Amino acid sequence: MELADLRARTDTVLNDFLAAKARTAAACRWPDEVTGALRDFLFAGGKRIRPLLCVLGWHAAGGQGSPPAPVLATAASLEMFHTFALIHDDIMDGSDIRRGQPTVHQALAARYTARHGAHAADRLGAGAAVLIGDLALAWSDELLHTAGLSDAQLADVLPLLDAMRTEVMYGQYLDLTAAGLPTGDLELAMAIARYKTAKYSVERPLHIGAALAAGSARLRADLSAYALPVGEAFQLRDDLLGAFGAPEITGKPALDDIRQGKHTALLALAWRHATPAQQHQMNALLSDPDMNLEGALIIRSILIATGARDTVESMITARRTQAEQALARAGLPPAVATALRELATTATARAA
Amino acid sequence: MELADLRARTDTVLNDFLAAKARTAAACRWPDEVTGALRDFLFAGGKRIRPLLCVLGWHAAGGQGSPPAPVLATAASLEMFHTFALIHDDIMDGSDIRRGQPTVHQALAARYTARHGAHAADRLGAGAAVLIGDLALAWSDELLHTAGLSDAQLADVLPLLDAMRTEVMYGQYLDLTAAGLPTGDLELAMAIARYKTAKYSVERPLHIGAALAAGSARLRADLSAYALPVGEAFQLRDDLLGAFGAPEITGKPALDDIRQGKHTALLALAWRHATPAQQHQMNALLSDPDMNLEGALIIRSILIATGARDTVESMITARRTQAEQALARAGLPPAVATALRELATTATARAA
User: Entry's Pfam families (chains A, B) (predicted)?
Assistant: First the structure.
């Protein structure tokens, strides 16, 4: 199974779909910046983890050889959905940079500044990005129901897709509303990681792929036993990168998560072991949306001093071990097991 | 065909669906304010025009008697989609009041003010409302594909639904990006009215309903000949109400559209017949997001002095006549024709 090849084929599906949408827009004299912004964002980068896992799930359930068009289109629809999720996420978090480029709302705001002035352009950019995200969500459905799936495949996939969409949106909701209020609530932080990342980015794509090859409930459970610890480890690594990662590698500004006061396991653990004086600092700094670099560096030092950083590293190791044991038990096709093992490594040891 | 009865049955479908989602949320320990906000918004009002038109389309194509559950669920899914559209629309327009109540983002902001402070609460309210709108969009799909439609019905409905979603989002995009820059571009204003309102609110719901009873291409064309002029007239009336309507009847603040500098036919016509001095005032006032009441009243006076208000009234009358002639030609079932004729009257003569 060639990873680069799979990525190229998924991107071709996405590119062809957007090209057709661009032709429709031209015919209706609709602004071309809508499909343009989606294309710019999609092809600026992204790991295509969800399409890859979807195809791996299909192989795990017995899908042989090169994935057929309906499987690829389903994989592509997961990436289009993810595009929607990231565009809206960046608006809600007020993020300026993603994939080393201006986020969609920032790029659109810049586009409108000349005609509308800076103040109006920011509102316009956010509004236009909300709409472009909405279109990406609607188009992820269109990609799925025009994928050429059989009625049986659709009947198996749709409930999983409904669950995935509801889970990730509640996960985002918890993530959004918990930010800025530091507490030691590790359970909440791990629930956010589970719904926002582990289930959405790892478990459900595998499940959906397996459903395309009529995978059994047993297989689904085996995939979950691997996916949930890997997904949690992936998020825990993301939390560490958000606080300690190098911007030139992550493609995001340094300390972004800290500035946004995200309620991560890293922060919850730090809070639990912080002195009253440190808790006081965390309260003051993390509730300030305009926290400066100095403040972020103070938080970073508390994350280290309290041992939270080390604890999160060991949580990642434990989950990676757990996932490898689950893989060993599962008895998946060797090629799939190898790919999932590699993915567990890169996802938990990655620097970006 | 009992209108009140149809509305009650659609609302029961929506209420039962949200109740099931609330049970899932409780079981997962997800915040109950998500389904709560949707229920509050849905049942605070709304004309349920799209569900009604969907059922009328089904009757027009030969659907007999009381609409069966799959037709009602499809009608309900259109209302859930509309809930998504209004929630995001109010965020983009910065509207505070809808259906005589605080908009969803305002209600959520108020909810968070105590814990997060006013500044953070506004951002949080907007972000949470974006997510709740996203869920309403995803759930409108779930309502449709769990409606119990036959594969043939789904195959006919899905392309129409895809078209509807793409059209309304581009219409909103044009509406958003044209605001604040007064011009005499009447074509643009009418394109916005067509995509944002006429096709989305009238034509597509009729088409989707007709597709549920395997309506012919000929019927679809007949319905369009009625729907497009009625939908345009509906939007033109909405524009007049946005500038001249009584807030206690419209449920929206007076002069809301004017304050937002919406590029309506009303405004385009005023611009075309405005003196240079009036155009100068329009430029200065309509580009100001913080236009005060005095400024809005000046714009209102220009809408009257230029004759734009009268011209829009006559455009409404012309479209209503056109729609009635189309109905007379169409030879629809008498009960359907009567209901559509009444709808054309209320939609174009309404005060709210």
Answer: polyprenyl_synt
